[in-house]
Design brief:
mainly alpha; five-stranded parallel beta sheet; 5 strands; 65% helix
């Protein structure tokens, strides 16, 4: 890198690429079942990060303006003020309107601020594509972990690049190949590694490195950026051709597919690199992509990204996203909050000015309100349990473990009196009454049933209940088969599964559901409880499928918990899924009353 060779220059069209990236991510977050591959926008963001850091650092170095201290200060001022504002306003707002949701948020927020949230989520067994697990308004901050970690190590990488001189771009590209190869190799080891592949800095950093190699290449060349087209074909045609596979992936490439990590994400990252190349090479395309809408969205893309999950999570907990105009209102609020937060920070940075106008007074008032929210939010965060043994949701976990133990004890007592109770039944009326006490009824469920088990046992003490936290339909099929072999699978089976995963389309869940239906057969009467877990992407899909089964299978009936839970959020705990004391009684009563209505009609 020859000193004085290249001055940093504004590159037209990059805001349009930021707009593309944030649009893909936003559509994926709001419409996950339509834009199933919108998460690939993260790859474009990482490529742009790598490109801009490398290009800016190289230009500063060649003009003798590069300083490690100045570099870190600049990134600190760009990344942290918006981040801290979003976090503090969010926890403050949730303190008033979603009390208890963030009571365990302390360690999560620390991991975000210190830049290792991606590894923290891995330690918590979080799954970006199974949002019911450790769901949080900050789930998307894993990306910021990768970003901050790369920003931290870049001066070291850049120092090596300076020493390597003309081989620097090749050096970064080779490092990127190692990272991309690691992702591909790990993808062949185990399906269980998907979260590790998606969150890991070492498996995602190749996008930054590929972008960095391009940034150094463009900083070192003699020609001016955006100075005209040197491409053999029209740039708009080439850009459109490159956009086609991106759009195909957006609608078809689910994050659970192993093929994504075995080469798909690497290929898409190279396509994004080519898109940057095309935009830079042709000044006419760059000019066209400088449209005001692209510049505004691109300029606010970081703030739009930060505000997404806090808004979406709140809407999901309130079930507002299911309203007709719910998604549009989400987008509107995200945009408004993004604009406001940027203006608030701009106002704070200009506080030294003495002459205030009406707009500045309005922002001052808004800032005071935000500080008030922050105060209450900080109180909740500081009250969080920082015990390393406690993971998010540990209070609920402890409650479920206690109820699991009580359930096992109650089932042991039920088994001891089973034969004695059966001998008392003489008439049809006595048989019906015994049924309503749960005699001859098997229940198979997950943590929602565990949570409600005290009330179920109270209303139906003779029912056989096998419920376990985190159980999905695959685990349910195994339990049903085991009970059948042991002769404990009654002719009436109540099932509460579908909270912890889909019931169709995705493997191994689709096969698990078929196994479950095959074991239960067509002679037993199946009563399946509908799912309420508003922040899982499969709730609506599962409930629709269960409704279809109830119309096509004569022995399949619904116990419709979904509308009751949706209209009575005060029956649920702070996680928006598990019933509280009032909810568990209503859950048990719904099972009892539905069975009573069906059995009395026979």
């Amino acid at each position: 890198m020859a000193e004085g060779k290249q001055q940093r220059k504004y590159i037209k069209g990059l805001d349009a690429l930021r707009t593309l990236a944030i649009t893909l991510i936003t559509l994926f977050h709001i419409f996950p079942e339509t834009f199933v591959g919108g998460y690939i926008g993260v790859c474009l963001f990482l490529v742009l990060t790598g490109f801009l850091l490398a290009y800016g650092s190289a230009c500063d170095y060649m003009s003798e303006n590069f300083s490690v201290g100045h570099y870190y200060l600049k990134r600190l001022k760009r990344l942290y003020p918006p981040l801290l504002l979003v976090i503090l306003v969010t926890v403050g707002f949730y303190h008033f309107f979603l009390a208890g949701v963030l009571e365990d948020s302390g360690k999560e927020i620390v991991s975000i601020v210190l830049g290792f949230n991606n590894w923290w989520q891995l330690a918590m067994n979080a799954d970006y594509f199974a949002r019911v697990v450790n769901a949080s308004p900050f789930t998307h901050m894993w990306f910021l972990g990768v970003e901050i970690e790369y920003v931290l190590i870049w001066p070291l990488l850049f120092g090596i690049c300076v020493l390597l001189s003309r081989w620097s771009a090749i050096f970064l590209f080779l490092l990127g190949l190692i990272s991309a190869g690691e992702m591909a190799m790990m993808s062949f080891q185990s399906v269980d590694e998907i979260s590790r592949l998606y969150y890991g800095t070492d498996t995602r950093v190749f996008a930054c490195l590929f972008g960095g190699a391009m940034g150094l290449m463009f900083a070192n060349r003699n020609s001016n950026l955006n100075s005209g087209s040197s491409l053999p074909i029209r740039s708009d045609i080439l850009f459109t051709v490159l956009l086609i596979p991106v759009l195909i992936a957006t609608f078809l490439l689910r994050g659970q597919y192993l093929s994504l990590y075995a080469g798909g994400m690497q290929l898409l990252t190279l396509i994004f690199c080519l898109m940057i190349f095309v935009v830079i090479e042709d000044s006419y395309l760059g000019d066209w992509l400088e449209a005001p809408i692209f510049k505004w969205v691109g300029g606010h893309s970081y703030e739009i990204f930060l505000w997404q999950y806090p808004v979406l999570f709140f809407f999901q907990r309130k079930a507002w996203h299911e309203l007709t105009y719910g998604p549009l209102l989400e987008i509107f609020l995200i945009i408004v909050l993004s604009a406001l937060s940027k203006e608030i920070l701009k106002f704070i940075s200009n506080l030294k000015k003495k002459d205030w106008n009406l707009q500045q007074y309005a922002f001052a008032f808004l800032a005071v309100v935000c500080v008030g929210f922050m105060g209450f939010g900080l109180k909740d965060v500081l009250a969080s349990d920082f015990n390393p043994e406690h993971k998010p949701g540990y209070k609920l976990k402890m409650e479920l473990e206690q109820k699991q133990a009580e359930l096992e004890k109650a089932q042991a007592e039920r088994a001891a009196r089973e034969a004695e109770e059966a001998a008392k039944i003489k008439t049809a009326q006595e048989r019906l009454e015994a049924r309503l006490r749960g005699a001859g009824i098997t229940m198979i469920g997950d943590s929602v049933m565990v949570c409600s088990s005290p009330s179920i046992t109270e209303l139906m003490p003779e029912a056989y209940i096998d419920a376990l936290s985190s159980r999905d339909v695959c685990g349910g099929a195994e339990v049903a088969q085991k009970l059948q072999q042991e002769g404990k699978l009654s002719d009436i089976v109540v099932v509460a599964l579908g909270t912890n995963g889909p019931l169709l389309e995705h493997e191994p869940y689709a096969s698990g559901m078929q196994n479950m239906l095959n074991v239960l057969g067509t002679e037993r009467q199946i009563y399946w409880i509908t799912v309420y877990c508003s922040y899982s992407e499969w709730m609506a899909m599962n409930n629709k499928y269960l409704s279809e089964l109830s119309t096509t299978r004569p022995n399949f009936h619904l116990i419709d918990w979904y509308p009751l839970a949706k209209s009575n959020p005060d029956w649920l705990q702070s996680d928006g899924t598990h019933p509280n004391m009032d909810g568990e009684f209503q859950y048990a009563k719904l099972i009892h009353d539905t069975l009573a209505q069906k059995l009395s009609a026979e």
